[in-house]
Amino acid sequence: MIREEDSAIPEQITNILIDCALTGGKFLKSHFLKKGFDIQTKSSPADLVTEIDLKAQNIITDKLSRVLPNVQVVGEEGKTVIPAGEAIYLDPIDGTLNFVHGFNKFSVSIGYWIQDQPVAGVVYNPIDDELFHATRGRGAFKNGNRIQVSTVKSLNLALLSTGWPYDKSQIMPALKKISLALVHAQEIRTFGSSSLSLCYLSEGVFEGFWEWNLQPWDLAAGVLIALEAGGKITALSGEPFQLNKGAFVASNGHVHAEMLNQILRPPVD
Fold first, then answer.
1. How many angstroms separate the Cα of 19 from the Cα of each of 65, 133, 226?
2. What domains, with CATH codes, occur in the chain?
3. What pTM does this model have?
């Protein structure tokens, strides 16, 4: 297990994750806009997996296993039990639907956690060449430059982001929350990649972002990047965030209470 007092090791882990994300991103970029690859649905018609997801996961996992053989890799395209100790959470294409439709907002997301604490995270959008990374206690960066959340202090001046639930029975409740956001915030956007939404919050594009029913590999990297950029993350109730719970709200900190009280806590009739 990595000791946090060993200051060099977390940075080494981050560099390994960066190298793996760049390798995976290069593979994705080489297949972007190509047609004819196999596409399958998972939980719903909007929840897709392609042969490119599977190949990218294998490429990245093989590389990780060679350099970090004792750390379990938990990937989206698998059914691995979440480990209690060290783990690397990998989403080879966060935004598969975007990838399939030729929309450039997708990413490779790799996060390293020890128990319930994030240590290193990398998110890479290969089409726009956006490389976000963070190491616990050392700040967040985009393409080598330090990033910070925005200083907007009022919800009515805030640009928010969210995503759509795969479960169609949850669409109407989601729409009601989005309606509240449109009333109380300046505007709202959806990207279809939770990792990128967290990164855009981290660099001050969005002031807030919330989602339902996500998996650890959707969040493991982006959560650390947002926290290291000065953001705040909790459960939708305002309770402490837990990686395995799936629902969360992230913000620049200044508009967090307003998001909870005016958008997320009000009951859905």
1. 13, 11, 21
2. 8-147 (3.30.540.10), 155-264 (3.40.190.80)
3. 0.92
